[in-house]
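Researcher: Predict the fold of Lipoprotein.
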Amino acid sequence: MVAVSAVVALGLVTGCGVGDGGAAGEPRRASPSRADRGEGKEALDAVTMLGPDRLRRVELGAHEVPGFQIERAGEGAAGAGRPRTDSEPCRPLADALGSQLRPAPAATVVRTFAKTGEDMDFEGLMGMIRVSAYEGDGAAGTLRALRAAATACADGFRMRTGEGEPQEFEAVRTLSPPSLGDEAVAFRLENVAERAPSLITAVRSGNMLAMFFATSLSDPDGVEIPPELVRAQVEKLRGMAEEASAQASAAPGEDDDEDEDPSG
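Model: Structure tokens for Lipoprotein follow.
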């Protein structure tokens, strides 16, 4: 893991150039999905209640995306404890950079990634992928809170990591999000002490949220979250959501017996 001030525990910071989203500053939303229309509630509930073991089915494999080494990370990969900030409007961003999320997801799995091979486009790149399943509208609510925090804290904010280390960002830039999932956001946090920025991208698929974080000490100006990693991860989430939806549709309804003709 890079220095705490570089990625605040490699946590939540992704970046630009991850697909064809809307203009910077404008959240991208897909057309209303079954979840947005209130359909398939049973399917979404089934997804959000998955435990970590089942949720690991959507984890990217060690070499699943060519050119990247992907490894399973421990619970403390995003830092120990909950970050703190005196700026309440900025709290969702500080929370995102820690390991204790609010609202708390039903389950979470974490992977780290680093660039491998001779391709130097991402020299020094390292980051984290965190996939969480939520109950209710926890995933959508988390994105709403991040959007509001990025707007309120555009001029930067101060915080302390869960370990108590001081952290200061001089600016929070809202970037063009990837055109993936049901909705997505992307931000770049400019660090005061280090040249390396912290990048955060979050993509919601139903009640599951994939968050990508990255930094680069060797190429702070050109760093981005690799779009192929984002696409590969979101595709896995979409597959699991469709599977859960199909299972819920095939399950007998609660009112099936009441609908039967008693006359036979």
